[in-house]
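To the structural biology subgroup,

Please find below the input and predicted structure for Nucleoside-triphosphatase, cancer-related, which we are adding to the shared reference set this quarter. The sequence is reproduced verbatim from the submission form. If anyone notices a discrepancy with their own records, reply to this email rather than editing the shared folder directly, so we keep one authoritative version.
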Amino acid sequence: MFKHVFLTGPPGVGKTTLVQKACEALVSSGVGVEGFYTEEVREGGRRVGFDVVTLTGERGHLSRIRDAAGASHGRREYTVGQYVVDLPSFENLALPLFRNVGSADGGSRKVFVIDEIGKMELFSQSFIRAVRQTLDSSSCTILGTIPVPKGKPLGLVEEVRSRRDVKVFTVSKENRNAILQDILAALQECLKQTA
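Predicted structure (tokenized):
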């Protein structure tokens, strides 16, 4: 039996939108939801980076396009394509969420959102550890997103994909409107087991 649900699919296909819709449905059915999602940041019509947004509405930088002024001031720089990852900002926002997740009051059913486990987030060793602990913890169900395999496999992503207790839905333009009900049904199944 699976206890976590992950969505995968090409960039821009609507994984985050589905996660948000699923969260709304869960909250209205009385399930506690915590965690974070990633949102693109646009200026003047072009994408300039990504923010991490917690489900309580806090927001912080995940990455920004490197600008001429953005010299790295001697610290180690983490980049994905043209984006410079702001690791301290990501960790400050995301890691505390994991600390609270196991400490749910015993009986409450909870879904923890991790959108996404991707290249940018995986620069954080603490994030990787926290995800593994949460996957193994019995107290919550994860609703997460992982990228489609491309280029060099990402260790933790492949680990998640191959876990027996994870159900992976592949989101496409064709199925993204219909698939929400399947995702919700799968989450309800998972929650029955953690309850």
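Summary notes: The chain has a mean pLDDT of 90. Strands lie at 4-9, 32-43, 46-54, 59-65, 78-80, 83-85, 110-114, 141-147, 166-170.

Regards,
Lab coordination
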